[in-house]
Amino acid sequence: MTGSTPTPQELLTIAIDVARKAADTAYRMRGEGVVVAATKSTRTDVVTAADRAVERQVLDALATLRPDDPVLGEEYGEENGGGATGPTGGGVRWIVDPIDGTVNYLYGLPHCAVSLAAEVDGVVVAGVVRNVFTGEEWTATVGGGAWRAGQRLRCSTETDLGQALVATGFGYDAARRSHQARVVAGLIGHVRDIRRLGAAALDLCLAAEGRVDAYFEKGLAAWDQAAGGLVASEAGLRVAGLRGRPAGPDLVLAAPEALFAPLHDRLDDLDAAGGP
Question: What is the fold of 8-144?
């Protein structure tokens, strides 16, 4: 499948096959025992041997299936294919998070996933998120909807922010977590409740099928949100940042249209995109 740009569905077919095998490897390695290989931004921001092994497996698989495509991964950065020019210069780029929710994986908590997305000219067009422990799998193609277990996903129909169950996440830096805790403290009295589950890609997928009503988080990288963000948007959620900005490191907010404005305004008042 080299040469002309494949369709989103063709890219999704590749992504599903690669992600399933990667998730199997992560699950097997968890059973063999977790080895912390390194830390990144802080001592609590761990990298396991499985993170590296799974990402290398994905890179090797894509190098065989799509040798000209560059790949952006959390552990190894960007590896260029034989001829593609990058995310906005034509062709396909893959974005992989080998284990989203590494701390959950470290502790054996069943909320972590392999996330793999394909973008064309800088636009994510296909994505898959697969839970390492449970095998639950969410997929989406641009314009083709979001799906799990053969069922098309629709986001929550909740219209009252006071009745909304909202998911969020915290960064690894202590100063950032403290700021995010203040945001949560200012928000929790205005919503039904808040959930912090620890894996952004899965949180976006849960929002896509209404298992939470909305989700927000500061500090997400491309690999955290690429596949899950597409699943969320294809399920009807509005995925954006604050004050007209696109979703990105400053903030990712995913909410149904009826909840987006009131949640956006509350988060803006609380300076959710600010702080460290």
Answer: Fructose-1,6-Bisphosphatase; Chain A, domain 1 (3.30.540)
> What number does CATH give the domain 161-269?
3.40.190.80
Strand partners, 78: 72
* 177, 206, 252, 229 alpha-carbon torsion, rounded to 10°: 140
Residue 116 CA to residue 9 CA, distance in Å, equals 14
Residue 97 pairs in a beta bridge with 115
Taking the CB of residue 259, how many other CB atoms lie within 10 A of it? 26
pLDDT in tens, 181-213: 999 999 999 999 999 999 999 999 999 999 999
pLDDT digits (tens, 9 = 90+) for 79-134: 877 544 455 456 999 999 999 999 999 999 999 999 999 999 999 999 999 999 99
Phi and psi torsions of 102, nearest 5° = -60, -40
Query: Which tokens hold the place of 15?
Result: 């992504």
pTM of the complete model: 0.94
The span from the CA of 97 to the CA of 117, in Å, is 9
